[in-house]
Amino acid sequence: MKNWRAAAITAVIGLVLTITATYLLEQHDHRRISERIQADAQSLEANLRSNIIRLLYAGELAGELLKTSTSSPATQLAQLRQAIAPYYPAIHRIVMFDHEFKLIEQYNLSTDTLLAIERFDAPPFELARLEELLVSTLLTQAFNLSPDPHDMALFLAIEHQQQRYYFALVMDMELLLDSTIRHHIIEGYQIQVTEGDTLVYRFAGQEEQLKEKWHREFQIRVADRYWQFVMWPTPLKFAQMHVINVAVVPIIGILLTLCFIGLVLRYKYQERQLEQLQREQYELAQQLYQRDEVEQQLAYLSEHDALTEVPNRNALLRFLAERLPELKAQQIDLVAIQINIDRFKYINHALGHKIGDELLRRMAHRIQQSDIEFDFIARIGGDEFLVVKECLNGVEFALTLTEKIFAGTAPEFYIDNYEVHASLSLGVAFASDADYDADTLLRHADSALLEAKQGDYRGLSFYQRSLQSELSKRQYILEQLHRAVERKHVEVHYQPIFALRHKTVSGFEALMRWRQHDGDFALPQDFLLLIEHTGLIIPLTERLIRHVFDDYREWRQRHHQQFTIHFNLSGKQLAIPGLVELLQTNLQRHNIPPEYLFIEIDEDLYCRHTSPANDILRKLKAIGVKIGVTASGLNYTTMQAIQECTPHSIKISRTLMKDIPHNKVQALIAETLIKLGDERTLHVSAVGVETQQQVDFLLQRDCIYAQGYYLARPMPAKEIHALLDDQSVAPVTNIQE
């Protein structure tokens, strides 16, 4: 649309310019024509005046000849005739008068008709002028000397023998004009001569259409008479006088306009193309700029922690890769201190991720704002930071650094109306012990930190070579464990739970066992913690649940009895995403009533999961699964948790049963737990029963369910069939809901 608008504007401008150019060129051409006509008219006027002057000169010359002649006037008249006739055809008669202007003699030069006159009849004033004529000539009207009123007479006065005579040269003015005009006029002009309103002479056809506009006038005085000359060109002459063909100008203008329109359209097209290229160039520049920004941002994000905005492990490794060779060359040591927030996961779980994230940000800020100007600070894990600094005095300098770190991060944090106390554990390693290798240095710091976290809070440990052997051992165990999971060497064993009064099996607790290459079994406490720190805990738990439910279904189909099945889950297992759905799906798939499934957790874990913010236990109860708590004692927190989310069973822990009945305090605590279960109508059982005395203790206090090595050791699934076949198994109908 813009292109056509530009073309229309160009067309209008071209039309205006064409009209203007046509007008200006036409005006210029007309001006030149006018000047040409004017010049031609002036040339003709000059020639006419020249001829008249020649006639006057001829008269004066004749007069001088006559004055000097001694001949008689009649003889002189004949001589004058002979002198004038060949050269002045316009003089058609010579007349001689006496002093009274009476006719003496006349000669016709161009006609045979003589005038029948006696004298020269002229007005008195003309005669008076002639009488005063002495030496010069006088041109006057011919009057009666010619039948044509426009003819003129040139009078000469001559004295001979004291007598005065007058010679009159009668001129045919029409012949004079005709001969002069025809001789001097440029071809193509038309001329008209008038005296007043009387036409004197006309050298023209009937083509007078150009006369009104293109005529030129000039006036010539002859004697006392004024002749008006009008001169104009013929149409053919006028056409020939045009230098510029005005009719061609609009065509040229239109063609030029079309050319300009084409140029404008091409220019607009190229301008549009240029704008498109500029837009594309701008967009490309923007994309490049955005890409640079994204690359810079990605480069920043790749080496910075998004939460705390401190450098991350990648940046730390790059720094160490650049710095450690320099320090090694200069034999300068570097200390690396790995910092871990004690029980951060508990804080995060109890107060929420928002508080946990803010705690990490503020902890990073405190480390940055400490009195120590560290060479580098990085967040290398969830709740772990690492700082490095050139070491001047070995262990003493490192101890000073750790004391300042403890002091700088000791005050409590106030976050969203919460007062959060967060302590740190520190692992210290030196670059010289790692041969100035970055990966080795970080492994040493991590080993030292793991050792420091073995204590309660504010742990501090320096790397020693023995820690490396422990780390290597853990790595070896982890590799073997991965291989065992792949080869299905992590098995499920079942420990029977007995109804003591009937001495029958009422249920089984599923336990993991790791079959090692020598055939022995590793207990969960030897590898469960390591599993929880890796991703193996999730697939292993899922496999455990499916395997146990498969075995349970087979027992029911074979023995037609109902048993309770017990899972003891850790905090990591309880936090598996989709745990409730996993259990519900497998219960339905294996057609197992959910009330025969017990999920057992320890006392501390139970207390942490009964708050309104954590609803995993409520979700499990909602699908019909029963919750069991392994208790080692009673305190306010436990009682409060029981009020918040009442469990279905209480299991007296192995630790509590260990010294019963000899330890009176433990016996009293166990008895209290049994009474609490009775009062709350909770199912009470004991684990770790190793003696008959312990069985008697439980029976005396109406705790009728127990498990332990004294009753039966954990066994694989294939041995369960033999156990069930060897005894009469009563249905479990005395489990109190």
Describe what this molecule looks like in 3D.
By secondary structure, this protein is an alpha+beta fold. The chain folds into three domains: 31-176, Beta-Lactamase, CATH 3.30.450; 313-463, Reverse transcriptase/Diguanylate cyclase domain (Alpha-Beta Plaits, 2-Layer Sandwich); 478-726, EAL domain (TIM Barrel, Alpha-Beta Barrel), CATH 3.20.20. The protein contains 24 helices and 26 strands. The strands form five sheets. It has an eight-stranded mixed barrel, surrounded by five helices. Helix 1 (2-68) packs across helix 4 (173-184), helix 1 runs antiparallel to helix 7 and helix 15 packs parallel to helix 17. Residues 332-465 form the GGDEF domain. It comes from Pseudidiomarina indica. Keywords: Membrane, Transmembrane, Transmembrane helix.
Features:
Alpha-Beta Plaits; alpha+beta; disordered C terminus; TIM Barrel; 737 residues; 3 domains; eight-stranded mixed beta barrel; 24 helices; five-stranded antiparallel beta sheet; single chain; Beta-Lactamase
CATH topology of the largest domain: TIM Barrel
Q: What oligomeric assembly is this protein in?
A: single chain
- What is the general shape? rod-shaped
Radius of gyration: 71 Å
Which architecture of the largest domain per CATH? Alpha-Beta Barrel
Cross-sheet strand order for the largest sheet: 17-18-20-21-22-23-24-25
Q: Give the rounded overall mean pLDDT.
A: 82
Protein name: Diguanylate cyclase/phosphodiesterase
Keywords: Membrane, Transmembrane, Transmembrane helix
InterPro entries: Biofilm_reg_signaling, EAL_dom, EAL_sf, GGDEF_dom, Nucleotide_cyclase, Rev_trsase/Diguanyl_cyclase
Organism: Pseudidiomarina indica
